[in-house]
């Protein structure tokens, strides 16, 4: 199939692109190359005849329209988004612009395009929107995990922007008939993840001998999903998902933040021991994030039962794969850190 993927140079998007190419699909990748995107994530397929990169913004309706007309996609997988909660607290406007208005542009263009298809193409077209568990808010320790019918209660500007985009996608299905699918995933981790996220931040701080920062008391709970499992789940939903349905995707690996960080430190002690002491000696607690959600957990019974997908990578296995990748790809993350430092020195970065 011909797939248009937005945000395909990002962490999750680049894995979806690679998996799609490996499966024999043709991929057009539209990405604005904002700070967390990296074309190096796709270096292995950059010259593949079935892959095309388009540098552009999903908010640019003229560009998006011309791209649909030229590439004739059978499927749209919409991953482009601003994603970091802390950055959304510092400055929400870019999150609203990309995550809400950008999604509206894509929906408008996709609907016009879809209505002019014919035969099997109009019947088989899908718009798959990739979202997050954060739209559901948070859970108490003893509450059941989020299901696809859990009411939305977003806590941060980021989560609210993703909840808004989810609502828009459902509205375009209800009002215009656009054949949509939605996925909501738990916290992702794995190779190529941007260093600001928790797991790579812990790894790189530990390797540099810096304080490993943990919000509050470290008792916030997250469900961790290996990124390659997530990419496979997205392609499963793309192929077999029922139009109009939402599917939760999770790793079924709940850990408190302090448990997670201690596990990372333990594995690093095995892979690259410190000259003196253990990596856990570097753990330090910092002021909690405003509105910090207590716990996320995903009930994935629906995707497991209806589509036959389940995660295959347990947390310790995934963390070892991830840490070995960061240890073997020092130039990749050092280049990112140096670029970010230069940007901040020029006064162009965010806090």
Name its key features.
351 residues, alpha/beta, Rossmann fold, 7-stranded parallel β-sheet, disordered C terminus
Question: Your description of this structure?
Answer:
The chain is an alpha/beta fold. It has a domain at 2-190 and 225-254 and 291-313: Rossmann fold (3-Layer(aba) Sandwich). The protein is built from twelve helices and twelve strands. It has a seven-stranded parallel β-sheet, with helices on both faces. The protein has a three-stranded mixed β-sheet with strand order 7-9-11. A two-stranded parallel ribbon has the order 8-12. α1 (11-22) links the parallel β1 (2-6) and β2. α1 (11-22) crosses α8 (227-240), α2 (61-71) packs parallel to α4 and α7 (198-207) crosses α9. The longest helix is centred in the N-terminal third of the chain and has 23 residues, at 93-115.
